[in-house]
Amino acid sequence: MIPLLIYGIVVIIFSSATFRRSMQQQVYAELKNVESLVDTLLDTAYPGDYTLEGDGALSLYKGGVNITADYSLIDGVKENTGMDVTLFYQDTRILTTIKSWEGERLIGTRAPEQVLTDVLAGGESRFYDKVIIRGTTYFAYYAPLYNSDGQITGILFVGKPAAEVNSQVNRALSPMVIVGVLALALVCLFSMYYAGTFLKALYGLRTFISRVATGNLSEELDPAVLKREDELSELGRSALSMQRSLRSLVERDSLTELYNRRSGGHHLTHSVEKARSGNTPFTLVIGDIDFFKKVNDTYGHQCGDMVLQNVARILRRHMKGKGYAIRWGGEEFLLVYENSRLEEARKSLEALQEEIRASCVQSEGNQIYITMTFGMACDSSRELKDLLREADDRLYYGKNNGRNQIVSAETPPSDGQ
Asked: Is 98 in contact with 91 (CB distance < 8 Å)?
């Protein structure tokens, strides 16, 4: 038993060390994937270059938008992943989720000298397993940030406290060590089974995060990961929550919560292909709020936003079970009636128009009523661009012939004249 016990202890120690390295490597992979997600999300939300403005209180701009005071993006990443995020402009922290004991963000502090040498000066992405920030040791990944001219403008940091990683590793190892001491034979069988399922789930989770990081926000996570009763299931739920948050940021218009034009265009293309392959009716409608500029000029843009939000709520409620709505641009909306012929869609649209006419927006004692003009097109056999142009021509016709009306295929000529 003594040689067997010694062998078992050696195996356990070796397995523990290997397991710890595997977990650390997984943490490194997760840090890199989250860094890629944050970088992609910043470019998606604020396309353009980074610039720093101001003398005293510095403000960081990206693509002409001041992102200094907006922590929703990086705070959302931390909430969903448990990882801290910092954006350096050159060597100085400008945005960060890391806070002092007093709850203040560590803004204005410098990156470690080794990081400045490797990443800012050397232009290389690096992992570090012992980065100390205000007394806390982090597993960290630093990557250079580039502007469109190819110049390094700063550093993006993603990190996780080493104590949390070690705690997770220790919690995962403790049952294995205890069972190994009590019954070596059972531990060997259990370890083989557990390691197989664990690594399979770990690989599935890593694959899921990697594909989401590359922009596949429709990727599905293996259900076996979520059925587990360990930290991996928690990470899986966090990854799904992060995916949903990213999808909402990328696909939804922030003001109206409708599909934005980019994601709505994908849904529209899919709807046309589905209608064409199934030989089912399909009606497309473009609507525009009448005299919306006058609302903005008279009552202000805040009131205009309230009008847009009110219209969006009515559209979402109306389109439930019929199709979906897209904010096509400004005060213009696109409605997609699936499995609906022109006559049926027009009846629904008339009810919608009446509901919009009757709705009222209260703003600073003012009661604002609005109307909308709609142009319709219905022929799933035609090209999507032709349907859009036809609906837009009919909308244009309605806007130039009295507004507050529905223009269907029978009314104006196709060129909108």
From this structure: no
Structure tokens at 383: 């090209």
pLDDT at 245: 61
Task: Quote helix, strand, coil % in the chain, to nearest 5.
Answer: 50, 20, 25
* Cα–Cα distance measured from residue 256 to residue 310, given in angstroms and rounded to the nearest whole number: 8
Q: What is the DSSP string of 213-256?
A: HTT-TT----HHHHH-SSHHHHHHHHHHHHHHHHHHHHHB-TTT
* Cα(417)–Cα(413) distance, integer angstroms: 7
Q: Give residue 417's pLDDT.
A: 37
Residue of 331, 338, 354, 410 marked catalytic? 331
> 331 catalytic, yes or no?
yes
H-helix segments, 147-216: 162-182, 184-213
The tens digit of pLDDT for each residue in 62-107 reads 888 888 878 888 899 999 988 999 999 999 888 899 988 888 888 8
| Rounded-to-integer distance, Cα 354 and Cα 327, Å | 20
CA distance 59 to 212: 30
C-alpha–C-alpha distance, residues 335 and 329, integer Å: 13
Whether the full predicted model's pTM is greater than 0.85, yes or no, is no
CB 408 within 8 A of CB 379: no
Contacts by 332-335 with C-beta closer than 8 Å and gap 24+?
A: 332/286, 332/287, 332/288, 332/289, 333/258, 333/286, 333/287, 333/288, 334/264, 334/268, 334/284, 334/285, 334/286, 334/287, 335/284, 335/285, 335/286, 335/287, 335/374
pLDDT score of 410 more than 60 = no
Q: Coil, helix or strand for 414? A: coil
Torsion angle, alpha carbons of 193, 194, 200, 205, to 10: 170
